[in-house]
Amino acid sequence: MQRVVEPEIIDQLPPDHPDVRRSRVDLKVINFLMGNERWIARHIAQYPEALAKGVVEIGAGEGTLLRRLARQHAGIPLTACDLAPRPEGLPERIAWDRRDVFESLAEVKGGVLAANLFLHHFENDELEQFRPHLERFEVICFNEPYRVERTVWDAQFILPFVGRATKHDMMVSIRAGFVHGELPERLGLDSSKWRIREETTWRGGLRMLASRI
């Protein structure tokens, strides 16, 4: 299944558009069912020294992951990067950097870099632009769609329960997702410098955890 990156509906609408608001609700449910944020939170907790230096989440969306980390880890710096406005009710201790992701990454600091369903928005050559920024982190934890026919098939079952934009964007996201080995290669993670682990889930997620050797 060839990787194809196409525009998603919600990326072309203002943040307060009804389709965008409905999509946010759908994504919360999908993330819960896939266990994405639970997986990221559980695995980065294995690296307390990197965690203490702070967590940066790119494409933070509603800030759900960082809200969870704020409850679990008192005192660690938390930074969200996203083009969307700061979500209402986000705890003040979570910094919100509303800029292009590459502009943010050039300045933000932390020990852990996390992303949930974000990198599939980028073409292959754009993914390579992340390389110099990743070098400044000790742990990298990404969750993305698993680009296989089985994920497309399974997604059919949830389509009747989501909004118009999510129906479109979910299938676009899967076709722009990744298979084993693609993320480390595109991101330039050298196996002599990084301990890299990838796993897939029956819920359609491809998960990559990389830590400094």
TrEMBL record:
GO biological process: methylation
InterPro entries the record matches: SAM-dependent_MTases_sf
Methyltransferase listed as a keyword: yes
EC number: 2.1.-.-
The entry's keywords: Methyltransferase, Transferase
Molecular functions (GO terms): methyltransferase activity
Keyword Transcription regulation: no
Protein origin, superkingdom: Bacteria
SUPFAM superfamilies: S-adenosyl-L-methionine-dependent methyltransferases (SSF53335)
Protein name: Class I SAM-dependent methyltransferase
